[in-house]
Amino acid sequence: MIRWFLHDVMVISALLFLSCQSSRAQANNQSLNDSLNNRKVEVESLVISGTQEIDSAELAEITDSMSGSTFNDDADELGERIRAQFQDRGYFKAEMQKLDIKVIDPLASPKPVRLEAKVSEGPRFRLSTIEFTGNHALSAQELRAKFPITTGDKFARSKIATGLESMLRLYRSRGFLDLVSIPDTNFDSGSTASLNIEVQEGRQYRMGNLEILGPSEVGEKLQVRWELPPGAVFDASYAATFVETNHSLFPSDFTQETDVGVFPDCRDGTVSVHLHLTSDTQHAALDRTDAFDPVGDILQGGCGTRDQSSPGFGQRHAARRAREQRHAQPLLNQTNRVADGRGAHAKFGSCGGEVLAPRHRENDRQVVEKISIHS
After folding, report:
1. More confident residue, 283 or 327
2. For a FRET experiment, which of 206, 288, 304, 323 has its CA 20 to 30 Å from that of 122?
3. Shortest CA distance to 221 belongs to which of 238, 246, 241?
4. How far is residue 218's CA from residue 61's CA, in Å, rounded to a whole number?
5. The pTM is what?
6. What is the per-residue DSSP string for 28-40?
7. Least confident stretch, 66-75, 145-154, 186-195
8. What percent of the chain has pLDDT over 70?
9. Got the DSSP string for 67-99?
10. Do 221 and 104 have their domain in common?
11. 202: region left, alpha or beta (phi > 0 left; psi from -120 to 50 alpha)
């Protein structure tokens, strides 16, 4: 009787401890969320002055697009977002001369603010040409078709960004995971802008091993349905399509972001794909911080590190930096990445480093088995 009593006390104590830990975790999460919200501002109104060329209708579009939106409490970012609105309407040399941020209620979360911006928009530029250099695997016509802008259109930065990302997707669907694109904008006196994109394709990768970690019955079904054989040109979009097509075979909490790993091998030019259906501490421990998103980071490659990121983030390739001294206006700025929300994608590791978060399922009692397809 005493033994069972002590056992019950120990169980209750353990439960109370777990409950306390859970409460602390929830409190910490709530505190973190509150802290993040305190760093946000909500734009109640935006007043723009100082412009000369832009008409009232376009100004109204800009103010409406900002009003009611929530952003980081960062004056530089807010100014860049306003500037981006002008650039998206062809005023690519727009300058933010002054930005006043008036907080309406400093205790609110997020803080409501009124913005007063003085902007010199400069001339409106229109596209003359887009040219490509260094491309071999894909023709200039194929690449140009990815840019949703025609000659004579307003030189809109969002359309250029869309084209660069679409070009990246196309190359990576053909196995070129290390693609680097370096955009260079030239403005002439006639208010037209030409864009030259230097392409560094890198090597073409091929499918290597498929590893499925989970129950053998499900793994074998997935193995049969996988249609990218070893040695085939690797399509970076295939894993996401495969998961979507066969979603009924995957666990309900399976996500591409944490449970799909895509790992280029720089030595032999192959790519391994790992699908984690159940928890596996051995593979989770291989988590690396050098992952890259196959569609999110336009200029990052899969092998080695480079001094570049999405165009216009102030981190240019060395070849780009010499040109920046001649062209003071960067093609794209930080706002593009900040404003552009992306969905979950399979993560890429750099040369064999697995990028997977551990899976924690309370009801997961199945033995983890490994199904592999080797080249």
Report:
1. 283
2. 323
3. 246
4. 52
5. 0.70
6. HHHHHHHHHHHTE
7. 186-195
8. 64
9. TT-EEES-HHHHHHHHHHHHHTTT-TT-EEEEE
10. no
11. left
Per the structure, the count of domains in the chain is 3
Whole-number Å distance between alpha carbons of 216 and 367: 9
pLDDT at residue 287 in the model = 40
Banded model confidence at residue 257, pLDDT cuts 50, 70, 90? confident
- How confident is the model at residue 256, as a pLDDT? 87
User: Given 120, 154, 186, which residue is the final one in a domain?
Assistant: 120
Query: Edge-to-edge strands of the sheet including 260-265?
Result: 347-348, 260-265, 270-276, 206-214, 369-373
CA–CA gap between residue 320 and residue 60 (Å, rounded) = 36
Residues 224 and 78 in one domain: no
Smallest CA-to-CA distance from 350 within 256, 272, 260 is with: 272
Listed range (25-39, 90-104, 225-239) with the worst mean pLDDT: 25-39
> What are the tokens at 357?
């978060």
Task: State whether 192 and 133 are in the same domain.
Answer: yes
- 158 is in which domain, residue-wise? 126-203+299-339
89 within some domain: yes
